[in-house]
Amino acid sequence: MSDEGTERARKEVEAVKEKLRVYTSHIKTPKDAEKRAIKIGRLIKKLENLPMCPSTIEQTLIGKALNTMRSSWTPELKTRAKELLRGWKDLWKNNKSSPGKALFKLRKQSSESSSSPHPSVSRNHIDGFRARKRRRMQLEGKDGCPSLLDICIEQLRSSIHKFGKVNGRIPPDIIVDVLEECSPDQLERLEKKNPYLAEETDALWERHCKARFSDNQIPKEVHSWRVLYSNLKKEREMLIQASKQRLKESRLRKERETKARMKRMIIQEAPAEIQKYRNGRGGKRRKNKLKKVLGRA
User: Fold this and answer.
1) What is the reported pTM?
2) What is the pLDDT of residues 162-187, one digit of tens each?
3) Beta carbons of 33 and 74 less than 8 angstroms apart
4) Which of 22, 83, 226, 239 could bridge to 205 as Cys pair (CB 3.0-4.6 Å)?
């Protein structure tokens, strides 16, 4: 059977299996069982007429589905399903060995019976060779396989944060390539631990200066890019601190103004209700005339 015919048969088997599942699950009353039995019988007949092959049976799992569903069918449908399954089983046994497996066995027998002095290669060796080939293809890019030096430099770049004293164990031309991926803080830390690196890193400091500061801040003549970066960094930190101080003073000034405004609101004359509470319900408090007369005497 061609690939197109096999695919068509597989789709038809899948559709029949889905309909069988629906009809079987909806059987609730004897009347429903009679109606569903007729439809299930038609679907079984359709399966009997379909051109089946072992690959279709294996992919669709139609045999397992029939075994599960036929327990709730009528005796007649059970018998037909059982005969159909027996036929598929015989078909599976007769076509168990695929053409690819038969060809592999034939090649193996011919290699064993040949008089060639070279031993036959086992499948494990072939799989190992294929795995190595896949790994090599993954390593190879458009520019070819990386050299050992490139691999070492890449490994050093990935572990640059672990560096301490190098003590000249890495050649200067290689260490410069490694330090290209360093941040300014990492570069400064490494130079403190390895003072001899300062002679090789001026170009790196130039790149950091141009990347982090504007052209107006960089003078035309520079004697040391490392010193320039340090000075510009200090100036930026001073500006940031000054901005923080101005913001802090502005916030404190607003807080003082808010407190003063709240005090003015509290000092204002109390409402009429509070005055009544203080002076009594009769209005304003009257002065004691007796005390006034005695005071004059």
Assistant:
1) 0.37
2) 777 776 677 767 777 778 778 888 88
3) yes
4) 226
Domain coordinates in residue numbering, the chain:
3-94, 149-200, 217-297
Q: Which CATH class is domain 3-94?
A: mainly alpha
Number of other CB atoms surrounding residue 153 within 10 Å: 19
Q: What average pLDDT does the segment 62-69 reach?
A: 77
Whether 50 has a pLDDT exceeding 80, the answer reads no
